[in-house]
Sequence to fold (381 residues):
Amino acid sequence: MSLLRRTREGYARAYGVEPDGVVFVPGRVNLMGEHVDYNEGLVLPMPISAGTAVAWGPGDGHLLEAVALDLDEARDSFDPGKVAPHQPVDWRSYLRGTTAALAESGLARGGVRLAIAGSIARGSGLSSSASVCVAIGRALAAAAGAETSVETLARAAQSAEHDWAGVRCGIMDQMAVAAGEAGSALLLDCADLAHRNVPMPGEWAVMIVQSGVRRGLVDGHYNRRREDCEAAARALRLPSLRLATVEDLQSDRFDPVTARRARHVVDEIDRVRQAVTAIERCDIVAFGELMRASHASLRDQFEVSEANVDRLVDLLNETIGNHGGARMTGGGFGGAVVAVLPLSQTARVRARIAADYAPPSGAPLEIMVEQTGRVLAGECE
Ligand code: GLA
Fold:
């Protein structure tokens, strides 16, 4: 059954009436620009076909009521004007955090019922939480009859992560899922949120393979990497590493670890610029080289990869050859790997991964192929 239909039916089952509407917000895979968004850098994520659906309709009184269809139909209910944090962090933290941020600007109100369902595995590195938050925001705004900008929705979703889930994430995921277009990458400048879609050539496929290692950003590694970057910027007396150059990094003001973190950020921002050029020139060989360089830097300089992820990336790179490439994607420490390859090669690569990669602890192998397709086939000839 489709996600939209499942969500609509779940709403009707939970509340005994049909919803007024259903919104869908995708997840994202990041193609280039990892761990640079909170350094005010450039990023290149792409929305994916999996995502979150939220059905909405009127409720009684001043309460906001919600049901999580995928979590045993767990419920939450509160007054949006008086929201209290939920501990430990779970889906209610995201619901309450997003609602609180939007209620402040009059974009969320009570007397609303929501039913939430999704098709992105949590902890897979594909932005399930940003997708949930932005979808809740869109549904609340629709129920309030209010217009919202993608920036307002993205900021509300980010504040749910910062203030309600304790993850000091950047703004990439929220902007990618709120502003991205299917089949295109989104070039986003995290310094001022300027963005534009970069259509992906129709001959390229984006393959996402789950390593089977569950990742969690709430365990502190992520926030520590951010602190390392902030320390590097302070040492250079810069507001952020966005403004640092390779020459700045020769400075003896750094300890070796901070120097490695900063080097990754400076190089990765440059790789995003080069990746956009490679897409626009349909140069999959150049794009593949950038992906391999990005992975090596995340593994050796930023140290956010993991042994199974490295094994999977190596296997993909070896199988794909030089027409494309693979890297880890998202926050790291497990989760998904992304590969860009010619569409014509997907069956061969998929078969090889299925034969030679076994996710740890018996997790099932999950491979998704996102077709780009906004540009008609033939564009790259
Ligand atoms: C997570 C965060 C993002 C970003 C990535 C790493 O997905 O939510 O803000 O920092 O990690 O690029």
Summary: The pocket of alpha-D-galactopyranose is lined by residues 30, 34-35, 37-38, 169-170, 172-173, 330-331 (CB under 6 Å). The longest helix spans residues 256-280. The CA atoms of residues 52 and 133 lie 9 Å apart. The chain has two domains: 3-196, 200-370.
